[in-house]
Amino acid sequence: MVILAAMAGAAIQIAIFGSKGFVRLLGIGHLPWVPLIFWLWSRLDQIPGDGIFKYWILSVIVIDTLSLIIDTTDVIRYISGDREPQIVLEP
Predict the structure, then answer these.
(1) Which terminus in the chain has less CB density within 10 A, N or C?
(2) What are the tens digits of pLDDT across the range 2-17?
(3) Alpha carbon distance 21, 19 (integer Å)
């Protein structure tokens, strides 16, 4: 599921990048992580013990949540008018 969410997000970001460049709106590409985080959290109790897999799932939840906070800020800034590309690629 983590790989599927990453692939869906990449597809969204590629489409946005292709039309607008490297802008703050790229944060929308992480929207597939929202259901992923809830899905992973709801299944934590089904992972036996305290093995490395459980810690990996927890790290995915924490890192994705922090990234979503940053992405939300970026998208709000874009909607508020901060639409300059962060990186300009020379042709």
Answers:
(1) C
(2) 999 999 999 999 999 9
(3) 6
The number of domains in the chain is 1
The residue to which tokens 């929308």 are assigned: 28
User: Is the predicted pLDDT of residue 91 greater than 80, yes or no?
Assistant: no
- Write the CA distances from 1 to 17, 36, 54, integer angstroms: 24, 7, 15
- Residue 22 has φ and ψ, to the nearest 5°, of -85, 80
Burial of 86 (0-12, 13-18, 19+ CB in 10 A): exposed
pTM summary value = 0.82
Domain region containing 70: 2-79
* Angle made by CA atoms 86, 88, 91, in degrees to the nearest 5: 160
Structure tokens at 42: 């709801």
Q: Do 12 and 50 contact (CB within 8 A), yes or no?
A: no
Tell me how far apart the alpha carbons of residues 23 and 14 are, in angstroms, rounded to a whole number. 12
